[in-house]
Amino acid sequence: MREEFIYCSNDFCPDILTVELAGISYCDGTYKITRRKSDIYVLEYIIKGSGIIIDNGKEYTASENQVYLLKKGLPHRYFSSDEDPWVKIWMNLKGSLMDNLLEIYPLNEIVYSADHEIPEYFNRFHEELKSGKSAEEIHKNCSLLLHRIIMNLYYRSVAAKHQENNDAARIKQYLEQHVLDNVSLEELSGVFYKSKAQIIRHFKKAYGITPYAYLLDLKLRYAKKLLVHTNLQIKEIAERLNFADEHYFSNCFRKAENISPSRYRYIHQKGKQG
Questions:
Q1: pTM for the model
Q2: Domains in the chain, ordered, with CATH?
Q3: Which of 57, 68, 173, 177 is deepest in the core (most CB within 10 A)?
Q4: What residues have CB less than 8 Å from 203, skipping those under 6 apart?
Q5: What is the pLDDT of residues 113-126, one digit of tens each?
């Protein structure tokens, strides 16, 4: 475990931007930071390795070429992996500049993917702190670099969210077009070139349920139409919708509707006749 710290004088406009501490950490399995109620913004770029962040009770993973931002006022802790420890460049910040930047560019996630500009901005920020320039010039240049970092993360996150929403919409359409089939996560993963975890995460983030739950809902909605508008037997409906068997179909239907398929048919067909 080795760390290189940069201490800053913060003599110029500390109420706007204060760099409490900055540095590079070469972590090992012993590295762990805990703040019960942070009064700083923590901004870190992972050069390599992986670790865990727990922010306000929620757990995240941060790995190579990602940035994480921990906001002030919340409890957090973070620690490095034993097998693949972090090497990271970081800064602890205070002041109204960060407050204002996050109002203009709201960053609501914890971990963000970085492009090639982000490590450059972090390195230049550190170079400015060590440059020996006047406090005013360091403040001006670091403020500009911080602005670029936050703006970069914001626009990349907006683009990523748009792509995730597009992916989720395409998955939704695919499920709607294959309501009679047994669509598995493996199939979705192959069709959309995403991992199974990504498929579930993107879909659930967009629609609040898993792809499996949505497909089951589609099947049951279709089943209700068949029950009311056809004379197909329950077993035939189960087979048409690719349920494992009639018993499993009936259990799924009863769980969703609080009524058996046969009872649902009786009530709604009787209503049609009346």
A1: 0.75
A2: 2-160 (2.60.120.280), 178-274 (1.10.10.60)
A3: 68
A4: 168, 171, 172, 209, 210, 211, 214
A5: 999 999 999 999 99
